[in-house]
Amino acid sequence: MTENVNADPAxxxxxxxxxHRWWDPESEFKPLHQINPLRLxxxxxxxxxxxxxxxxxxxxGGILADSMARRGADVLGIDLADxxxxxxxxxxxxxxxxxxxxxxxxxxxxxxxxPQSFDVVTCMEMLEHVPDPGSVVRACALLxxxxxxxxxxxxxxxxxxxxxxxxxxxxxLKLLPRGTHEYAKFIRPSELAAACRHAGLELVHxxxxxxxxxxxxxxxxxxxxxxYLFATRRPAE
Length: 237
Fold this sequence. Notes:
Layout: H1 9-17, H2 30-46, E1 53-57, H3 63-70, E2 74-79, H4 82-95, E3 100-104, H5 107-113, E4 118-124, H6 133-143, E5 144-155, H7 159-172, H8 189-198, E6 202-212, E7 217-221, E8 227-233
Parallel strand pairs: 1-2, 1-4, 2-3, 4-5
Antiparallel strand pairs: 5-8, 6-7, 6-8
Helix pairs in contact: 2-3, 5-6, 6-8
């Protein structure tokens, strides 16, 4: 890996070790399987996916990319974790998922290679795992066509988010492996909004995501104090 790649080798190794479990709905990736219908429907309501050219940045094992392809989009998933991409490709073959492909490339490198190529760009649960999230935001803004949509989701940085996303999810409820997240890498909505503005993206919709540990239910709400989602748009030229 070259020094200028915006990725943390420890983060890539962490997810590579679990790569074979991406598509096990009862594995460490169970929360991703549970929240995927929520984020998929939200994206599809704002930017209908049928017939769209879509890029999923930080696709991992392909949970979101696969589901967007099944909604009728032509999807490219990109990641720098080779083992996760191999799992994604294998699942696409086994499930006969149409119109989805995967590449090992960074968002920044793809932005140089293919700017303004996608109707929709998604970057979900990824920004809190890279050294320079602003660089990813800028790359996403370059990759989307004028008038196109860019979706982000990440975790707020405040005491409640630490209590819920780290102490609660990783230590008490064991929803995620310990060490999945680092509090210092969490991103306040104001910080992400500023990064979007600087990249030329307009923030259009914001939603929070909540979880009830008693019922095991996730839902979208107006509470962005822990997990939250942004829908941004590149102005039409």
